[in-house]
Amino acid sequence: MAGQILGDRYQVERELGKHAGRWTLLAHDLHARERVVVKLLCSDEDLRSDDLKLFDREVEILKNLSHPCIPKYLGYFQHRLPGGRALALVQTYVAGRSLADCLNRGRTFNEAEARQIAKSVLYILIYLQGRNPSIVHRDIKPSNILLGDRKVHLVDFGSVKTILNRQDGTSAFTMVNTHDFTPPEQYTGRSVTASDLYSLGLTIITSITGIQPSQLPRKGNRFDLESIVDLSPAFVDWLLWMTETTLDRRLQSAMIALQALDAAQVRNAIA
């Protein structure tokens, strides 16, 4: 699609990603004279209603978010295709490399670097969880964390879910694609603020070890980090706390997780 003009103003430079009828494109805004990201969802006979719901949800969520480390909503339009039409979401372009790209190139991160990435993402999650209603990203993984110029960005809000004020604090939702970084409760239709913490914890572990979650050694229900990496006891304990498989044993919010990380003490000492 390189060179094609979408919406009479966005000239496609190259494809950034493609998955199940969705294209993510880098384009040049001919009016604003800047690079943008255009997400296309093809509307054809293969389009599932859930796909459309997720796409519409991403549009509505981004419209109402304003954070320097989250892509900004710029526009929404329909585009005609030879076989039908496509829905298009336009958002700001974040220049940088994802954690997944770094890992694929053999780059791993030391403890100080990993702590800084974790803190940066936690600040974003504090913003999301502080919204009314709270927002759960539901798809935190290395490919959705971008290391930009002096900032860490969280991208791809196609799986987000708002949590209504229910007595149990949980939310049922449309099931989305699962992966190694998906918390256990999401497989059974639950989503809470702590769900993003599990995914972030595993993402940080992978950024340090270069090992995918499914390949990490375990001791019972926990990951055996001490056998594969040399980290401070407090940081190991924090990572294990973030990735507890049992919800009531896991850190419950981004703010609490940040406070525990800053305390740099094992959990028995700060309990």
Q: Report helical residue fraction.
A: 25-40%
Low-confidence residue ranges: 165-175
Approximately how much beta-strand content do the residues carry?
15-25%
The oligomerization state is single chain
How many E-type strands?
13
Query: What is the arithmetic mean of pLDDT?
Result: 87
Q: What is the chain-wise order of helices and strands?
A: EEEEHEEEHHEEEEHEEHHH
The rough form would be described as elongated
The N- to C-terminal Cα distance equals 55 Å
Widest β-sheet, arrangement of strands: 1-2-3-4-6-5
| Class from secondary-structure proportions | alpha+beta
SS element count, helices: 7
Major sheet characteristics: 6 strands, antiparallel
**Rg from C-alpha positions?**
19 Å
What does this structure look like?
This protein is of the alpha+beta class. The chain has helices at 49-63, 99-104, 111-129, 193-209, 233-242, 254-263, 267-270; strands at 5-6, 10-19, 22-29, 34-43, 73-81, 84-92, 97-98, 134-136, 145-147, 152-154, 161-163, 218-219, 222-223. Strand 2 and strand 3 (22-29) form a beta hairpin. The protein is elongated, with a radius of gyration of 19 Å.
